[in-house]
Structures are given as C-alpha cells and as structure tokens.
C-alpha cells in the first residue's frame, strides 16, 4: 500500500479539479501518439493518424484522451485502493488488448507535460512530485496483470 501525505492527497485532487479533461486528455494522448509513433499500432481503427495535424484533429483520439482522464479520476477517488481500482483495466489491457505496459509510462509522461503547461507557475516541483507519484502508482497498477 502506498503512503500518501496530506499534501499529496490534496494536490492530486486539486490538479484533477482544476484541469479541463476535454482539453488535457486529448492533448496528452495526441502528444503520446505523435512523440511515440509506435504506440499508434494499438489504434488502427482510429482512422487517419498519418501526421501530427491528423492526430490532433482526430475525434477518436480526443475521445480516448477523455476516457483516459476519467479513468485517472477513478484513481483520484480511490487513492488508497489503486491496485484494486485498476485491476479490471489491467486485465483488459494485458489479456485482451495486448498493450505493451511501457506505454502506460509514456502516456503518463505526456500527461505530466500537458498538465505542467496548463498549470504554469503553479506546477512547482512539489506539485510535480505528487502528480508523478500518483501516475507511477497508476502505471504500476495497470501493469500488475503483466507480472
């Protein structure tokens, strides 16, 4: 079980309360597909992913980015039970979708960049540490089925 300080708990909740899922999710997911093009192989049914402009303008990318944000929101609401919270998604991604678990880290890195750009000066080192700790535990939890 992960130990969360009061600061970490409040910071994680505050970040997710401040950001617009409809902007941050699509931006983070699009960034992941652009920066790490090999991740596109899981999304062949999304249509045109041939260049950055196509990815950014793709409604399927936007929709999945929002889905990712709502998935993370589940974790924010269940900080003390993240492994259990993501158990079903871990099974889905490993056994049905066969997603490389390293991709969870890639999207979390892209999300950190997008959140930092949205929060600006409020994204201090301490805030980043809390967010990245949360995302690291989510990544671990999503990859649990692979172990």
CATH topology: Globin-like
Helix-strand makeup class: mainly alpha
The multimeric state of the shown protein is single chain
Distance between the termini: 17 Å
CATH architecture: Orthogonal Bundle
Q: On the 0-100 scale, what is the average pLDDT?
A: 91
Number of domains: 1
CATH superfamily: Globins
The SSE order reads HHHHHHHH
Strand element count: 0
Shape: globular
Helicity, in percent? 55-70%
Beta content comes to: under 5%
Major pleated sheet: none
Instruction: Please report the number of helical segments.
Output: 8
Low-confidence stretches: none
Supply the CATH class.
Answer: Mainly Alpha
Radius of gyration: 15 Å
Family: Belongs to the globin family.
Keywords: Heme, Iron, Metal-binding, Oxygen transport, Transport
GO molecular function: haptoglobin binding; heme binding; metal ion binding; organic acid binding; oxygen binding; oxygen carrier activity; peroxidase activity
Function: Involved in oxygen transport from gills to the various peripheral tissues.
Characterise the protein shown here:
The protein has 147 residues and is mainly alpha-helical. It has one domain (6-146): Orthogonal Bundle (Globin-like). Helices cover 69% and strands 0% of the residues. It contains eight helices and no strands. The longest helix is centred in the middle third of the chain and has 18 residues, at 59-76. The mean pLDDT is 91. Heme b binds at residues 64, 93. Residues 3-147 form the Globin domain. Involved in oxygen transport from gills to the various peripheral tissues.
